[in-house]
Amino acid sequence: MLLHDHEIATAQRSPDPLPPRPRTRAVRIGSPIVASFGLLLIALVAVSIGPVSLAPGTVLHALGGLVVPSDSAPAASDLLVSEVRLPRVVLAGLVGAGLSVAGAVMQALFRNPLAEPGITGVSSGATAAAVIAIVTGVSALAWWMLPLAAFVGALVCTAIVHAISSVSRGRSSTIILVGIAANAFLGALVSAVLANASDAADVQRVTFWLNGDLTAATWSDVAVAAVGIPLVAIVLLGLARSFDLMSLSDTQAASTGVNVGLVRQSALALAALVTAAAVCVTGVISFVGLVVPHLVRLLVGPRHARLMWLSALSGAAFLIVADLIARMLFTPVVLQTGTVTAFVGAPALLLLVLRSRRNLQ
Question: What residue intervals traverse the membrane (predicted)?
């Protein structure tokens, strides 16, 4: 039995299956407020730091120019902030928040602390469909074709994982094995598509995009992510109480009036949509949905109202910092953002697996 299953069993033996609510309103809102200010500070630092460092006052002046445009020509520092660094930081924040919320939702619905879009194969499904759309030229037909293809791929892969999870009664090992198989199969499919691509530019674009990167982030990319991620995340937050009950057992959730089938299918579709919105603008960035919700759960407990809200803020901060490390660690050599998250996430996954094995003994 994995750690999460052990926690569930302990909670089911207690009179109140969920942890007590915070005693005061100040306690309930304190952590999100602190996290929000921390995120803003991290974003300001990330915009300030680069090959050309900018003073915080210069950054604030450039941001003020976006709010209140001036008739005079913008300075070079203003353009650096508004057209290069700010879209990259905003996109990192949106994608990090979305992937963290999707990971928290999958961990609740599969009752598995190792579930997240990358490990379960959902990100690979979105990637494979998006790569096919790029290589075949379908993505050039309209701006929304690439996000649509990514969503369809993510949704199909989510449906397959959900179906196999239902047949196997949600056993954690089965879900992980399905994810490994899906990632291997879809990786081979992507390689075959690229090997037969006729346009070398598409191959180069896709190859760099497969490991997740924010180097060429633009406001158009931000717009695509902003259309799908915040609204869907808010809808998922509205299902937090249902996730609390379903993380214990479907029977207990159903006994309180939760339509378990509808909530699960809707939430998984929404998680797939968030994943697709992230993948189609940044490529595959793994482990964010694994590391962040797990650490936040250790800090604030399993109640999903706080867990998802703080996971979104923490995920945004995590990916902003990861992207900052990617572009500054080996200057002038720039790493891909997905490479940095893998360096952090792979050891974290190993620690989770070892910790789970200790609980089995």
Answer: 33-54, 89-110, 117-135, 141-163, 175-197, 217-239, 268-295, 307-326, 333-354
**Which residues of the chain carry a pLDDT beneath 70?**
1-31, 71, 168-173, 356-361
Q: Treating both helix axes as pointing N-terminal to C-terminal, what angle do 145-167 and 172-195 enclose, rounded to 10 degrees?
A: 150
**What is the model's pLDDT at position 173?**
63
pLDDT digits (tens, 9 = 90+) for 151-177: 999 989 988 887 887 776 655 567 778
All structural domains of the chain:
84-360 (1.10.3470.10)
With tokens 């995120």, the residue in question is 39
